[in-house]
Amino acid sequence: MKRELMPYYISRVVLSAGMGVFFALIGNWPWWIGLGMGILTFAGFLWYAHSGNYLIDPSTPLTPLRRDVRGKAIRDQSVVTAVMVAGVAYAALTLIRLGVPFLSDPGKWALLLGVLAYFGVSNWLFTRGS
After folding, report:
1. Residue 66 pairs with which residues in a beta bridge?
2. Per-domain boundaries in the chain
3. What would the pLDDT profile of 36-74 be if each residue is shown by its tens digit?
4. 3 state DSSP class of 29
């Protein structure tokens, strides 16, 4: 762990713990699922800080990660892809639901597909290099 990122790490531990409590209370799940979600959230924060995809600005210790021009372009492409995937998935799942009445709410599944598309495209573009 980088010493200059300690305020970031501490703030993200607090945020991850809050996310874990949120998932456990709102989801009405056992405590260990909330703990697992908190750990996964913190692991994501650590991965972002050490992935090399972000610039580190030490002048803002609680929010030191910054995107460069390439990172902003990747974010824009990922957002467009996620919105398109979620929109098409929502339309398709709504039509499928007409024939399959026991299918759960299509909005949840479309949102999940959109989020997965965002992270998938974003990580794929970052790993492709410049």
Report:
1. 55
2. 1-66, 67-130
3. 888 999 998 998 888 878 888 888 888 888 888 988 999
4. coil
